[in-house]
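Q: What structure does this chain adopt?
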Amino acid sequence: MSQVQTIFKNMSWLLISQIIASVCGFIWTILMARYLGVSNYGIFGFATSLTGILSILMDLGISTHIVRHISTDYESAPKYLGNAIPLKSIFSIVTIVLTLIILILMKSNELVITVTMLFTIEMFIKTYIYLFNGSFQAFEEGKYQGIGNTILHLLLLIFILIAIFTDLGLIGIAVSYIIANFVALSYEYYVLNKNITKPKFEFDKDFCKKITIISIPFAVNSLLYTLYYSIDVVMLANMVGTYETGIYNATYKLISVLTLFYSVYTAVIFPVMSRFFENDESMLLISFEKSIKYLMLVIIPIAIATVFYSTDVIHLIYGHKYDAASSVLSILIWTVCLLFISGATNSLLNASHKEAVVTRIYTVAAAFNIILNFFMIPHFSYNGAAITTVLSDLLIVIIQFYIIYNLGHRPNKKLYFDIVKIIAGSIILGIALYFLNLNMWVALPVGIIIYFATVYLLRVFDDDDKYVIKEILGKN
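A:
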C-alpha cells in the first residue's frame, strides 16, 4: 500500500468516527444548552475550559513526543509506553490537587467546585486515551482510534440523555463524561495490547526524566495553545458573569464541530511529516503545501456561508434564548480558517524538531490574547473575546510564515495562487448567496453546486491533485 493510500485509509477511519462524534456532540450540545439554561451552561463552559488548561500538566507533552519518536522507531514503543503510563499518573495527581487549590483561591461556589473537579477526573482518564491514540497514529493504525472515538461519543450521548431525562443536572452530566471515557479507555488499552504493542511496565527514573525534559517544549506549546483558546471563557466567567460565558461557550461548541476535518487531517499527517523530515525533506514541504490547500478548500466557503446564516444556525440549534450568540458565531468562524493554516504549520515545525519555535510563537500569542482580552471583554463582552481570538490567530499565522521562510521552508508560489483561487470562488459563492437570498436549507445544496463549479472553472485542481486522487483510488 502506498503512503498516500495509507494516509487516506487512516483519514477515512478517523473521519467516519469524527462525523459520528460530531453528530453526537451536536445533539447533546443542543439538549444540554436548552436543559441547563444560559447560566448553568456558562458553569459547564468554565469547568471544561479550566480543566482543559490544567490537563496539559497531566501529559506534559509526552504523548506528542511519543508519536514523533515511535513513528520512526517502532521497537521503542514498549519501553516508552511502559514508563509513560506511571509517569502520567504522578503528573495527574499533582494536577488534581492544584485544580482544587485554584478553585478555592478563586472563591468558587460549591457547585462550580464539584463540577470542575469531576471534569478534572475525566481529564485524568482522557490523558491516557491521548497517549494510546498517539500510539495508534505512530503505527498508522487509525481504525483503532476511530473505533475508540466512536465508542466514547455514542456512550457519552446515551449517558447525557439519561442524565437530562432523569434530571440529574450538571453533576449527572459530568459523571456521564467520566463513565464514557473510562469505557473507551478500557477498549483502547485492550486493542493496544492485543494488536499493536504491549507496554513494558517499569519506572526508570533516568528514562522518565529524559522523556520529560524532551517533552516539555510540547507541553509548553499545548499549554499555551489551550490557554490561548480557553482563557477567554475563564476570563468571561470572572469578569462579566456566567450568562455571557454561556452565550460565548454555546458558539465555541459549534466552532469545535467545524474543526472536525482539521483534527483528523493533522492526526494522520503529523507522523507522516515526521518520517518525511528524516528521509525526504522535499516531500515534507509538499505535504505541508497540500495540507494548506485542501484545508482551505473546505473551510473558507463554510466560513462565508456561516456569516450569512449565523442567526438561522443559532435559532435552529439553541433557540431564541441564545440570540446574542449569532454575532459571536459570525466573528469566531474566521478563527477556524486561521486555525487550519496555523495547525498545518505547527505540524511542519514540530515534525522538523522546531517545537521550541512553536513555543515562542504561542507565548507571544497568549500574552497578546490575554492583554487584549482585559480591554475587550469589559467593553464588548463576548464579542470582544471573539474579536481578540481572531486577531490573535492572525498574529500567529503571520509569525509562523515569517519563521518558516527564514528556516528555508518556502512554499511554492503556486500555493498562493491556489489560495487566491479558493478565496475568489468563496467570494463568488458569497455574492450568489447575497443576491439569491435563499432559505438556509435551499442555500446548502445550491451553494455547494455554485462553489465547486466555480472551483472547477478556476482550475484549482492541478495534475498533482489528480495524481493524489488516482493514488487514493489505486489507479496509478
